[in-house]
Design a protein that fits this description.
With about 130 residues, the chain is α+β, with helices and mostly antiparallel strands. The protein contains 6 helices and 5 strands. The strands form 2 sheets. It has a 3-stranded antiparallel sheet with strand order 4-3-5, with helices on both faces. It has a two-stranded antiparallel ribbon with strand order 1-2.
Length: about 130
Amino acid sequence: MSGLVARPHVLQMVDYFFAISRYGFCRQSATGSWCVAFFVYILANKPNGTIYVGMTDDLVKRVWQHRIDLIPGFTQRYGVKMLVWFESYESREAAFLRERRIKKWNRAWKLALIRQENPTWRDLWRELSPP
């Protein structure tokens, strides 16, 4: 036996950081690498149903908070829990501006944006969340 002990929670965190690096912006420097990302996202309660547009710097955590009704408000009231669309940005300002623009769009444009990237309205949470 080599003395190595399997620690599932560590593997889950590695998977979590891999997911973030897949969708974020990673940099390599002399002291190591780091990733940063800001996200604009759309949640829905069902295909073509109620939608919510938001912004965060931790997509996995924020969607999880919506899914377990941690934060009272619109998404909790209307059962909006499915992640159906998201984009990543290198700066908080760029993400904030994109979120504000999308929030001003009419519903048909928002639905078209979702359908363009996710025509079957699958819940993207399963692709992002740690096992």
